[in-house]
Here is the input.
Amino acid sequence: MSGERAALLKVSDLSVAYPGTGGGHVLEDVSFTVAEGERVALLGANGAGKSTLLLALLGIIEAHAGGIEIDGVLLEKKSLPLVRRKLGLLFQDPDDQLFMPTVYDDVVFGPRNQAENDGKAAEAGTEALIAEAADRMLAKLDILHLKDRMSHKLSGGEKRLAALASVLVTEPRMLLMDEPSAYLDPRARRRLFTLLGRLDEAFLVATHDLDLAQNLCGRCLLLHKGRLRADGPAKDIINDRSLLDECAL
Ligand SMILES: Nc1ncnc2c1ncn2[C@@H]1O[C@H](COP(=O)(O)OP(=O)(O)O)[C@@H](O)[C@H]1O
Ligand SMILES: [Mg+2]
Here is the structure.
């Protein structure tokens, strides 16, 4: 247990089934918590249920049973907008996240939307604050030079960071990432590790990249066939060959 630190995310006995698939559970009785500022790797072979779990946390896939609580808010239909503001998801494929003409347009899209929802879009100064926040985030991720580039013409590594900027600029309480190191060359991968290592936000990262888990995460959750097979210190789980073998990693 993480002791004094308050639980930021609490998942209790979560079961999930995809509609129209005969009711078989893709996740079964999954329970865990993530504390403020904690970095957790969600490990598991292909098909273990990692992406499904991330989608369930955002309410994109409905839980069949169990509960999800984020920053004290219970996930239910009426709390969806609030929950989605507290969680930022970095999609597996950055092309799904970057859909505006330029990097800058993508990065200001979320904040503009939030300002709209808060009824602040027309207020004097809002646009300037958004522009400042976007520049600050691009600079933090060392990609200010990409600001006016066309998103779809960036390299894989650049797209990944632009997508990350577009998520972080909305100031989520917790970052969810789905296979962020997939398709990156070694240099882009190291760069991503360095930048993720600098973040203050808690994160839950679905990956089968054991280096990423070892370098960035204090703790691992290990999913196997939709069940949580292990939850513990990253070094213990990553060094347990027979456990990893058993879970096809
Ligand atoms: N949209 C869907 N409809 C039905 N079954 C799905 C859907 N998406 C994923 N699944 C199934 O759910 C299981 C878990 O998938 P997924 O969460 O994508 O695993 P992972 O991300 O760990 O590779 C797999 O058996 C997969 O075939
Ligand atoms: Mg997946």
The chain has one domain: 7-246. Strands lie at 7-17, 25-35, 39-43, 65-70, 73-74, 87-90, 174-178, 202-207, 219-224, 227-233. The domain at 7-246 is CATH 3.40.50.300 (Rossmann fold). The two ends are 25 Å apart (CA to CA).
